[in-house]
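User: quick one, sequence for these tokens?
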């Protein structure tokens, strides 16, 4: 998953490492929801909170990584706060500028800021003791574009210092072993990696082509063509767990579309007999009744879409039958009254 997605001006959503939960940061606190079955796992409202900007759940635990908005003295924007919901005791990591995104897994924390991204090792001698191990300069990244592997050794994909390029970083390797991919001709809108970090998919603000690259060599594997609407904006890309399907979610004029691509078998290998595969079109498309949205595949291989209207959509699909349908829908956040809070479950 490439980034947090904003719902209106004051709410962001993000999925946890294995996509079994998602978290919501809102003006008065945060809430964490389970994906299957859908439901509110826990929520916290802070009377003295002036707005949280980010909330990221550590796996399925009680530990949440938080970042506040400007003017928030309890959760200042120049800190990432580790919140233990059992003890209610916060612990802050000082950063230079406001966090634009937070990515966390059981061993590493990634903090995305507008001009650089930092990687932190979370534990030392079995104790939570964050230590910065890498700092990466990036292209201006106000949207917090970033993708990390969820299985195996950590790999991090972020915008490189040059527009349209992606830098792949492995903290276990020296910086000179980074892989830089000239992914797009214009500014990146979204990036995603498969779970083990073998493939990276990219989309730009301009154009209708999603490009998939081999992470190790930087070689272009396949060009996926999502449609002819050049003004549609891609807000999410996601591989399923075996990387045989890639979905893109885009919107234009408050109408959304999910494109499901069958990743060609040849593109699942590191080496191709041809330079790359071109012109693959989506196997399935699904019209979405929403604006910008975030998405992820859950372990049961269904797609969960979180919309800018605060709706949870579960989508069942079949590439073989070329079908997709919304099978479940819930309202997890009410955006009608300004400063509302998630529905109590």
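Assistant:
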């Amino acid at each position: 998953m490439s980034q947090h997605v904003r719902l209106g001006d004051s709410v962001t959503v993000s999925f946890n490492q294995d996509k079994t939960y998602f978290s919501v940061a809102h003006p008065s606190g945060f809430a964490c929801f389970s994906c299957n079955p859908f439901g509110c796992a826990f929520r916290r409202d802070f009377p003295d909170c002036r707005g949280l900007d980010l909330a990221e759940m550590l796996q399925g635990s009680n530990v949440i990584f938080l970042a506040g908005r400007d003017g928030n003295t309890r959760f200042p924007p120049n800190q990432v706060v580790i919140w233990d919901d059992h003890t209610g005791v916060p612990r802050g990591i000082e950063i230079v500028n406001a966090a634009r995104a937070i990515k966390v897994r059981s061993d590493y924390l990634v903090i995305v800021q507008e001009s650089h991204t930092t990687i932190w090792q979370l534990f030392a001698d079995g104790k939570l003791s964050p230590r910065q191990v890498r700092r990466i300069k990036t292209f201006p990244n106000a949207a917090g574009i970033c993708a990390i592997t969820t299985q195996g050794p950590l790999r991090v994909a972020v915008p490189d210092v040059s527009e349209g390029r992606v830098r792949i970083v492995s903290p276990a390797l020296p910086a000179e072993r980074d892989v830089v991919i000239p992914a797009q001709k214009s500014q990146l809108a979204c990036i995603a990696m498969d779970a083990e970090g073998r493939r990276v998919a990219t989309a730009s603000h301009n154009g209708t082509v999603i490009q998939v690259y081999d992470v190790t060599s930087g070689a272009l594997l396949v060009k996926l063509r999502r449609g002819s609407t050049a003004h549609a904006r891609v807000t999410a890309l996601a591989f399923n767990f075996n990387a045989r399907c890639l979905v893109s979610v885009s919107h234009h004029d408050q109408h959304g579309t999910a494109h499901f691509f069958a990743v060609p078998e040849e593109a699942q290998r590191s080496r191709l007999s041809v330079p790359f595969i071109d012109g693959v079109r989506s196997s399935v498309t699904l019209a979405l009744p929403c604006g910008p949205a975030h998405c992820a595949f859950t372990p049961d291989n269904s797609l969960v879409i979180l919309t800018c209207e605060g709706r949870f959509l579960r989508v069942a699909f079949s590439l073989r039958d070329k079908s997709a349908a919304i099978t479940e829908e819930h309202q997890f956040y009410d955006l009608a009254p300004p400063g509302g809070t998630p529905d109590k479950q």
